[in-house]
Amino acid sequence: MKNSLYKGTLKNIILKLLKEEGEMYGYQMSKKAKELTRGDLELTEGALYPILHKLEREGVIVAELRKVNGRERKYYLLSEQGRKQQAKHEQEMKIYLNSLTLIFNYDK
Amino acid sequence: MISEENNKKIINYLLSKKIPIDVLVEVHDHICSQIMDNYREKNDFDVVFDEVKKTWEKDLKLNKDIWLGTEQSGMVRRIYISTISPVFIRGLLFGLLVYLCVNVMSLFFRENFIQYFILGVYFCWLIYMGIKYFSDYKEYARYKKKYDEYKLSVYDDIWIDSLPISFSFISIILQIGIKKGAWFFLNHPIESIGDVIYRVFVILLFILFIAFLYTGGVTFNKSVETIDKIKNYFPHLRSNRFYK
């Protein structure tokens, strides 16, 4: 499927992944998204990191640096504000997806 | 595990793509994880590294930035926009608030007093930045000088650029604005369309001036905060040969 169709929802996808996993690093997110969508969603690095930096700047997520395998790894977690925002966005996404299903199941 | 020699190849590749060091930290980890995942199947670092580089090719391709005159990749440009623009927008709102306050002040004080007040605030800001740079942030200043060919963080250099920009704005404002009372709306009635255009121009300059001061201050503090997070990468950087 075209990645552009996911474009407006990447932020919600990242927040949902963080809600379920608790904490994640960049590569883990792109791998998980690919795995959950059976290879359909390629969360490209060029799209992923600008969104992560924006969310961090806005205080929606917080980052923690940890040493893993001798190198620094940046883990992301939802902040309190992020948790509230995620719950709200998830609700909105469900309504949106439901509406899309109704429209695309329409068969005269 | 990736050997020290191969790790160096990855870091040198990323440095050649002019990625700020704070972004490089996580991109480095991302690439190492990708390599380790694929290495199990192919067992040849160079082959796997070439394949991984291909997946990053589009995002890390260097293009000349017409505004900054430097080379930058698409991914880094997007990170800049997503981190700096909210700070600048907040600066604009702050500028608007300051403008409104100064206008209210103009009802109670003479315009000359306000002119000196604004100049005073500006020079206090310059002195504050100078003191912070040379005292509290000595360590940052030292690293900045030592690794001057690199951008240590996304916020780096933006505060340096904000100084001359804000200075040129305040020069224009003080020369053309205050003397004619052009940007005081409350106690200087508007007489013609030209008057409106002129005032809007001066007010925009004033708000931009405050926005640049604000952005400079915030990005300066952010640059300093980042140092601790990237220290481990300094041994991989080439230091300034004149630095002792």
Q: Beta-strand percentage of chain B?
A: under 5%
Q: Mind summarizing the main beta sheet of chain A? A: 3 strands, antiparallel
**Could you say which overall geometry of chain B the principal axes of the C-alpha atoms support?**
elongated
Can you give the helix content of chain A as a percent range?
55-70%
Low-confidence stretches of chain A: none
Q: Quick one: how many beta strands of chain A? A: 3
Overall mean confidence score, pLDDT of chain B: 81
Q: What proportion strand of chain A?
A: 15-25%
Could you provide a short overview of the structure?
Chain A is built from four helices and three strands, in the order αβααββα. By secondary structure, chain A is of the alpha+beta class. In chain A, β2 (61-68) and β3 (71-78) form a beta hairpin.
Can you lay out the helices and strands and say which pair or pack?
The complex is a heterodimer of chains A (108) and B (244).
Chain A: H1 10-21, E1 23-25, H2 26-36, H3 45-58, E2 61-68, E3 71-78, H4 80-104
Antiparallel strand pairs in A: 1-3, 2-3
Helix pairs in contact in A: 1-4
Chain B: H1 4-16, H2 21-42, H3 45-60, E1 62-64, E2 71-73, H4 74-108, H5 111-134, H6 138-146, H7 158-177, H8 193-230
Antiparallel strand pairs in B: 1-2
Helix pairs in contact in B: 1-2, 2-3, 4-8, 7-8
Give keywords:
heterodimer; A: 108 residues; alpha+beta; 3-stranded antiparallel sheet; 4 helices; B: 244 residues; mainly alpha; 8 helices; elongated
Structure in words:
The complex is a heterodimer of chains A (108) and B (244). In chain A, 29% of the residues are buried. The two termini of chain A are 26 Å apart. Chain A is α+β, with helices and mostly antiparallel strands. In chain A, strands 1-3-2 form a 3-stranded antiparallel β-sheet. Chain A is globular, with a radius of gyration of 15 Å. Chain A has helices at residues 10-21, 26-36, 45-58, 80-104; strands at 23-25, 61-68, 71-78. In chain A, helix 1 crosses helix 4 (80-104). Helix content of chain A is 57%, strand content 18%. Chain B is mostly helical. Helices cover 73% and strands 2% of the residues of chain B. Chain B contains 8 helices and 2 strands, in the order H-H-H-E-E-H-H-H-H-H. Chain B has helices at 4-16, 21-42, 45-60, 74-108, 111-134, 138-146, 158-177, 193-230; strands at 62-64, 71-73. In chain B, helix 2 (21-42) crosses helix 3 (45-60), helix 4 (74-108) crosses helix 8 and helix 7 (158-177) runs antiparallel to helix 8 (193-230). The longest helix of chain B is centred in the last third of the chain and has 38 residues, at 193-230. The two termini of chain B are 35 Å apart. The mean pLDDT of chain B is 81. The chains are: A alpha+beta (108), B mainly alpha (244). Chains A and B meet through helix 2, helix 3 and strand 3 of A and helix 2, helix 3 and helix 4 of B.
